[in-house]
Amino acid sequence: MFRTILFDVDGVLLSEERYFDASALTVWEMLYSPKYIGLAGDAFEPAPEESVIRRVRAEVFDHDKVLNFIKTRGINANWDMVYLAFSYQLVRLLAELHKTKSEEVRGILTSQIHREAIARVKELAQGIDFTVDYAAFVTDFEKSTAEKQALLLYLNDLVREKTGIETTIFSRNSELWDLCQETFQEWYLGDRLVADSIGRAAYQEGKKGFLDDEIPIVEPAKMAEVLAELKSRGYELGIGTGRPRIETVEPLKAMGLLQYFNPNRVVTASDVLDAEKRYPDRAPLAKPQPYCYIKGMLGMDCHDDECFGLALPIENGEEILVVGDSVADYMAARSIGCKFAATLTGLTGQEARAKFEELKADYILDDMTQILTIL
Predict the structure, then answer these.
(1) Using an 8 Å Cβ cutoff, are 74 and 147 in contact?
(2) Computed from CA positions of residues 62, 64, 65, 71, in that sequence, does the dihedral angle turn out positive or negative?
(3) What are the phi and psi torsion angles at 259 (to 5°)?
(4) Which of 7, 195, 228, 280 is the most buried (most CB within 10 A)?
(5) Cα 6–253–197 angle (5° rounding)?
């Protein structure tokens, strides 16, 4: 039945935990570091102990309630999660500042927010009585039915609600999104590797990175056994992931898993970002948009015009299987018209079964090794 099997990485092959840690630390840095907004109330450090990482993760994502909400609404990219979590607190701060400094705040909220604008916010916030409220994120966003990338746009609605200012600056195509993305990369890759990803040294030095702390979902030898069996049966194996290329290739290579995937079918967030730069009018292309899986299905040597021009849903959808752990993966697979196997090894584990049953996923697996039972 199937010819090609496309795997997500986070929550399927590798644990998402360190990605969520890096996401929380990014939000924490941008709120409390003197190089960013520099709020009082917490002491930022670029090389926190594990106990500090655990505290920050629990606080920023309100014991993962924020993460669960964002993922349930179809957002799967950590860069988007960082942008949403930080921008929300920024909107709350600017709403407080608006009470006494309305014109300055209007200027910030009607222009692109870059490092200079962040520095201006820092100046305006000196001495203000403001408390970060991470838990309020879900309360405010639950008022909307927005899903997928529309969640990012909903930040503009919150600005209007809290300040009365009309703006359209919050979106995937914004300088603040780029700033959040690069700051996240500093945390995940560390000083040693970040320049290869973002083209510059770390803005805040001293970060060790998490790339060497990757955690496999299942024992690598067991995953290798399953992938080797799939390949021996003639299946084309590919990847469609929200990870950048270096963060995909290096850990899978170290665990002996990369060899089983066709290099022409390994599509990463780096490839998605490149495509968005070539076709800015088509952005965003990250999941739940189906671009990375379409590219993996057709091959990296396929021109993007063919990917964009492919009629969806495809006629031979029963020949393609997407294996993912998130609602965003499910949405992408449904857009393509292919089959979808949900693995219960993502953020919420077995609790995700009810959601995927509600969505009527084609298959629900305890982990990726069970894929052999459905072929």
Answers:
(1) yes
(2) positive
(3) -60, -20
(4) 7
(5) 85
Q: How far apart are CA 188 and CA 208, in angstroms?
A: 8
| pLDDT(36) > 90 | yes
**Full DSSP string of 127-139:** T------TTHHHH
For residue 286, give the amino acid letter.
A
Asked if residues 186 and 203 have their Cβ atoms less than 8 Å apart, the reply is yes
**Residue 37 and residue 281 in contact, taking contact as beta carbons nearer than 8 Å:** no
Q: Which residues of 342-356 are buried (b: 16+ CB within 10 A; e: fewer)?
A: bbbbbbbeeebeebb
- Are 134 and 61 in contact by the 8 Å Cβ rule? The answer is yes
d(CA 115, CA 319): 47
- Tell me the percentage of the chain whose pLDDT exceeds 70: 100
- Rounded Cα gap, residues 363 and 343, in angstroms: 9
Peptide bond into 290 cis (omega under 30): no
363 forms beta bridges with 341
- Condensed to tens digits (0 to 9), the pLDDT of residues 327-337 reads 999 999 999 99
Task: Report d(CA 160, CA 72) in Å as an integer.
Answer: 25
Which of 243, 324, 328, 332 shows the shortest CA–CA distance to 291? 332
164 Ramachandran zone, left/alpha/beta (phi>0; psi -120 to 50): left
- Peptide bond before residue 48 is cis, with ω within 30 degrees of 0: no
Cα 335 to Cα 313: distance, rounded to the nearest angstrom: 6
Residue pLDDT, tens place only, 171-227? 999 999 999 999 999 999 999 999 988 999 999 999 999 988 899 999 999 999 999
CA 154, CA 171: separation in Å to the nearest integer?
9
Query: Does the bond joining 313 to the residue before it have cis omega, within 30 degrees of 0?
Result: yes
Q: Please report, for residues 168, 271, 289, 301, 320, the alpha-carbon distance to residue 305 in angstroms, rounded to integers and kept in the order given.
A: 29, 14, 16, 12, 21
Q: Is the pTM of this model over 0.85?
A: yes
